[in-house]
Amino acid sequence: MIKTQNSSKGIKNITQLLLVAVLAIALSGCSEPTGMDAAFSSASSPIYEESMKALEDQITASQYQQLKRAINYLNMNSTQYSSLENFRKSLDGSSAAKIIKRADALRVSKQKAASG
Questions:
Q1: Rounded Cα–Cα distance for residues 45 and 75 (Å)
Q2: Domain that holds residue 2
Q3: What are the pLDDT digits (tens) for 81-95?
């Protein structure tokens, strides 16, 4: 009888452990993105400045410099925006990672155009 009770407790403990693990995995997917994946806010100049300052505290210095270079590159090489304010608005809602990818894609596109 003791073996059966110990087996039942062991199975119950394993079941509880699996349930906790599944819940932890599920909840980790519900958290707000941070750092390079957080939404970048740039609807106005003050909001842009606040967003840059917040990102600077969340990402490495290297990532922050990479983001700044990407923003500068996009600003200097995107001809579709009539003002800095309109350019910054185009970044609103993107993540730092997406902004960097956007700059990289523009750089590759310009290099292909120049060589072809």
A1: 14
A2: 1-31
A3: 889 889 999 999 999
